[in-house]
Design brief:
Blueprint (H helix, E strand, L loop, with lengths): L9 H15 L4 H33 L6 H27 L16 H10 L1 H35 L1 H4 L2 H6 L4 E5 L4 E4 L2 H37 L3 H52 L4 H29 L2 H6 L1 H10 L5 E6 L6 H22 L4 E8 L2 E8 L11 H11 L4 E5 L6 E8 L4
Parallel strand pairs: 3-4
Antiparallel strand pairs: 1-2, 4-5, 5-7, 6-7
Length: 442
């Protein structure tokens, strides 16, 4: 099989981009910001370490009396102040945004309540741990980055400033070695070239070393100075609960509106029609019979609207026969042919099953209204502890979650149960929506 060498492969194009990126790294603003972060870290960390160590030792020594308690509480409050400064420094120089940790919530009023809450909170102790751990790391990172960066640029630019030694120092060049019998200077053209080449190597390596050093700082700041995982999870659950409440309220309003504008209006008209038919039953039986026949038709329409409304809430076929049968019924109402493939050996929990049904129904409705597709495919399967849903169509594409409320609401509904949704919709190439839900056995 022949290979066309005229067009570069993706790897060769990536390699050509990597070289200019490496050459520009020493001049990149991110490199200088990272270098500034490491330089500034040492004096700040030295202050944080010294104050934290001194006040912690004082508080621990005074624990034999009551005075140790307020001293330790004040120490933890002080370290939280250090955390504010460190988060701001990381946000400004490293571009790392760390959320504020959970505030102190005293259960009792007064100074005793505040001290108790401060000592019980894990946030202050994590900030204190950061003050102790970051100091030795800051010393190491400061020394490595400063030496590597300074020597790299000094050696790279040595051909430009080596004249300083013969002009002002009385030496032919930078001295590498010297004793009573022998001295070695960097003064020849070859030595200047080799020195500049070594400096170029150090200068090109230094940005990646600085990036690696700041990555450790990112981990420490994020892990010790941000909210705890438990607090983040509680916040997520509170947000999800709000989404669930809002969704339920919206569903109730929709049901109320459908009942008021649909079945209820028909039933009111039906009652009025039957009342008129009753009045004309004796004096005009034929007209009364026609009115009763018309009321019979209204009853059928009202029943159909109630069935459709009930199907939209939770269809009986979903409860009785599962997703395969329920989605097959949904597919018949889609304006394009839909192929359904449900590969599940067991059924998930009713709540998960209901959300999966709603997700596919909403996506098929979007295909009918907006996709201009010819065919659609729905695949549902289980992977370990996740229920996966994929809906594809061959329509016009170009869908996104920002221009309308349908996909946005669907994303929020999935997120309320720890689900996620991925949208791939290139213009002219159709749309693929993949959703994941946690598997919870029925």
């Amino acid at each position: 099989m022949g290979i066309d060498r005229a067009h570069p492969t993706p790897r060769s194009r990536g390699g050509s981009r990597l070289l200019p990126k490496a050459l520009g790294a020493p001049f990149a603003p991110a490199t200088w910001r990272g270098f500034g972060y490491l330089l500034l870290g040492l004096p700040l960390s030295a202050v944080f370490f010294s104050l934290s160590l001194a006040f912690t030792a004082l508080g621990a020594g005074l624990l034999v009396t009551f005075l140790g308690v307020p001293v330790l509480a004040a120490t933890l409050a002080m370290t939280r102040g250090f955390g504010v400064l460190e988060r701001a420094r990381a946000r400004t120089l490293l571009g790392v945004t760390v959320a504020e940790p959970e505030p102190i919530r005293p259960t009792k009023a007064g100074a005793l309540g505040w001290m108790g809450a401060m000592l019980k909170s894990g946030v202050g102790w994590r900030h204190l741990l950061f003050s102790f751990l970051h100091f030795p790391w800051a010393v190491f990172a400061f020394c490595v980055s400063l030496v590597l960066w300074a020597y790299g640029w000094a050696m790279l630019t040595y051909p430009l400033w080596h004249w300083v030694f013969p002009t002002y120092v009385g030496e032919p060049g930078l001295q590498l070695y010297g004793d009573d019998t022998r001295r070695i200077y960097l003064d020849s053209a070859l030595e200047l070239t080799v020195t500049a080449g070594a400096g170029l190597g150090l200068t090109l390596i230094a940005p990646w070393v600085i990036r690696g050093l700041t990555q450790v700082d990112r981990v420490m700041v994020t892990g010790l100075l941000g909210p705890s995982r438990l607090a983040v999870r509680v916040s997520e659950l509170e947000s999800d609960r709000g989404v669930v409440v809002d969704t339920a309220a919206a569903d109730l309003r929709r049901i109320e509106r459908d009942l008021h504008d649909g079945a209820q209006a028909r039933l009111v008209a039906l009652a009025m029609g039957l009342g008129l038919a009753k009045e004309k039953l004796l004096e005009d039986p034929d007209t009364a019979a026609a009115m009763v026949d018309e009321a019979h038709g209204e009853v059928k329409l009202a029943l159909q609207e109630l069935r459709d409304l009930a199907r939209g809430i939770h269809p009986a076929v979903l409860t009785d026969r599962g997703l395969d049968a329920a989605l097959s019924a949904v597919a018949t109402r889609c304006t394009v042919p839909v192929h359904i493939n449900v590969d599940l050996t067991t059924r998930p929990a009713p709540a998960i099953e209901g959300i999966a049904y709603y997700t596919v129904s909403e996506l098929l409705q979007n295909i009918s209204k907006h996709a201009q597709a010819h065919t659609a495919t729905v695949d549902i399967w289980r992977t370990q502890e996740r229920l996966l849903i994929q809906v594809r169509d061959d329509g016009k594409g170009g869908a996104n979650t920002t221009t309308g409320t349908g996909l946005t609401g669907l994303t929020e509904r999935l997120g309320a149960v720890d689900g996620v949704m991925d949208l791939d919709s290139p213009v002219g190439l159709g749309t693929t929506v993949t959703a994941e839900l946690p598997w919870r056995a029925a």
